[in-house]
């Protein structure tokens, strides 16, 4: 199957700079709204909030604000009911929380995970807990620390505090993500330079469990949990052309390898509504959707393929609109109906 020829099911936005970080809003009253982060190799970078005008079928920029350094990740508050303030988090030199309105976006607070200095090591990633939106976990790349931030918010006021330093990993940490296992609040995993996937529990932070190690000890760059079945997660190695699917009940041995890409994989996104569908994106310009329900039998080919006009560096599956996937390449954002 191919998406080519279905132009009404592909919408494109061109930013004034290379797009790297990107995330869908989950608020029910903000359909087809995304935040985009620039990748400019200097201090002055930007974040744009764009939305699709469904009547004109055109993306429009709602707001642009300055951001120090490129954003390594962007996330909207996981508030599907719209009861919290409209918040956006970005990572870079610090973890920043922004309040978004129809007319402006303002910095609400700046979170520093260094107790002894006003300076902060670069943050490679973070995750916002879907069960408890007052909880964020971040990782920084220099001294390998993973930090839990506790935030408190209601509809009128908002303030934050650093809850604790949770652990020090054995290597640089590149990505981190909460699991939906055990109620969805306490379990998370990280990947990093030593090629391992480590599981943590907020209730027992004195140790971690290694559930996978890359055979060649290649650094692992990304981690993504299955949205419907918390037993499964996906990861990928630096400069690798395959995605490894893991079952936490059978540690150390992948249950599937997705290896049809012909260049480095850059992004992974599980379907929000299905436990057996996952999208991968790579430097070969391809976004591929796979059906993995036949595991542990080998997964030979994707069920859907889309070829972009450039190397795809990010892919996000809309959690509240599961028919839509967003990809980024060069200075372009595209959303695709699947």
TrEMBL record:
Each WD repeat, start to end: 258-300
Superkingdom of source: Eukaryota
Alphabetized SUPFAM superfamilies for the sequence: WD40 repeat-like
Matching Gene3D superfamilies: YVTN repeat-like/Quinoprotein amine dehydrogenase
Keywords: Cytoplasm, Developmental protein, Nucleus, Repeat, Ubl conjugation pathway, WD repeat
Xref: Pfam families: WD40 (PF00400)
Protein's cellular compartments: Cytoplasm; Nucleus
GO CC terms in record: cytoplasm; nucleus
InterPro entries: DCAF7-like, WD40/YVTN_repeat-like_dom_sf, WD40_repeat_CS, WD40_repeat_dom_sf, WD40_rpt
Pathway of action: Protein modification; protein ubiquitination
Homology family: Belongs to the WD repeat DCAF7 family.
Protein's recorded name: DDB1- and CUL4-associated factor 7
Organism: Salmo trutta
């Amino acid at each position: 199957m191919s998406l080519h020829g279905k132009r009404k099911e592909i919408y494109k936005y061109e930013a004034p700079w290379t797009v790297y970080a990107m995330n869908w809003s989950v608020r029910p009253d903000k359909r087809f709204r995304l935040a985009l982060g620039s990748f400019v190799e200097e201090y002055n970078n930007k974040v744009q909030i764009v939305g699709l005008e469904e009547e004109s079928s055109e993306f429009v920029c709602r707001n642009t604000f300055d951001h120090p350094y490129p954003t390594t990740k962007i996330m909207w508050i996981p508030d599907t009911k719209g009861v919290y303030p409209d918040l956006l988090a970005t990572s870079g030199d610090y973890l920043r929380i922004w309040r978004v309105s129809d007319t402006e976006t303002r910095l609400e607070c700046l979170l520093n995970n260094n107790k002894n200095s006003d300076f902060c090591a670069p943050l490679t990633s973070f995750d916002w807990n879907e069960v408890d939106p007052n909880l964020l976990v971040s990782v920084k790349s220099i001294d390998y620390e993973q930090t839990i931030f506790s935030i408190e918010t209601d509809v009128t006021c908002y303030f934050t505090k650093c809850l604790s330093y949770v652990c020090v990993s054995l290597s640089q940490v590149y990505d981190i993500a909460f699991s939906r296992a055990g109620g969805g609040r306490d379990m998370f995993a990280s990947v990093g330079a030593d090629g391992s996937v480590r599981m943590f529990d907020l209730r027992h932070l004195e140790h971690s469990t290694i559930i996978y190690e890359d055979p060649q000890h290649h650094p692992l760059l990304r981690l993504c949990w299955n949205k419907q079945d918390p037993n499964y997660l996906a990861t990928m190695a630096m400069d690798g052309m395959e995605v490894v699917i893991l079952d936490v009940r059978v540690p150390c041995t992948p249950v599937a390898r997705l290896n049809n890409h012909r260049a480095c994989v850059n992004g992974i996104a599980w379907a929000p509504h299905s436990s057996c569908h996952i999208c991968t994106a790579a430097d070969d310009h391809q976004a591929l959707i796979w059906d993995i329900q036949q595991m542990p039998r080998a997964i030979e080919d994707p069920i859907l393929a889309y070829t972009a006009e450039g190397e795809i560096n990010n892919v996000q599956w809309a959690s509240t609109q599961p028919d839509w996937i967003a990809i980024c390449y060069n200075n372009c954002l595209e959303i695709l109906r699947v």
